[in-house]
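Table S2 (continued). Query chain:
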Amino acid sequence: MPDTTNGVAGSPSLEYPDYWWYRVRSQLLRVVFAGYVHEGDRVLDVGSADGPSVQWMPGGRRVALDLDPRGLRPGDVCGSAGHLPFADHSFDVVVAFDVLEHCRDETAAVSELTRVLRPAGRLLLSTPAYQWAWTSFDEDVGHYRRYTRDRLTAATARAGLRIDRSTYAFTATFPLFVAERLVRRIRQRRGLDATGLPQVPGWLDKLLVRLASVDAVLLQHRDLPYGSSVLVAATRPERPSAPEREQAVPHEAQHDRDTEDDHLSGQHRSADLLHRGR
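Corresponding output:
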């Protein structure tokens, strides 16, 4: 169950950083995205202050932003992805891993992430996959939606970005994911507790990690056609595209958007935040 600090929901990864899913996600994010993050890049990491998903990134110029201050380090920022406290074109790379599903207005969220990207800067995203997989767990952690690859690429392209790569992940573990969702729905219908991270015994942890290693190998060479997560890498063009020009909004007006119902992973509250999908 997500813990809370000062009324703000925190990621379960703060309490369970060694949970198999967080360990595997870090590996898969590195395989897919490492080529888009270079030594010396200024990186804005939205919603990953807890650390498990971004330990593979080059250090030195990474700034984390999160509503939950517990995982923040000196130089990081406690704040909302809906009101990024940075000037336009401030970062070479912006990452938002399992963030957009927590944002009521995905268009406004992607536009704000894009705003702080420099021309030729890269936006790296991950989200949970498939609306049909929705259960009470999604409600518990504060999701508004789950994604298909087409929906996430469309949301990114509307902001004027060029899609460089899009793929599913957690493909080899997908049959077990489907089974877990079915069990959760059955428990929910019977009035039993269906919230929180699934308990995983040691033997199953090893099996899941081993299966996910197949993804890691395949993702080095190809995109995967299905899985429980969607990953997208996109680039801001050197010159604004037509959608970006048409949708451009003064920075002050952007910050006047009503986002008080958006939230950081478990609760529908301020702005749009932050990561905690599964």
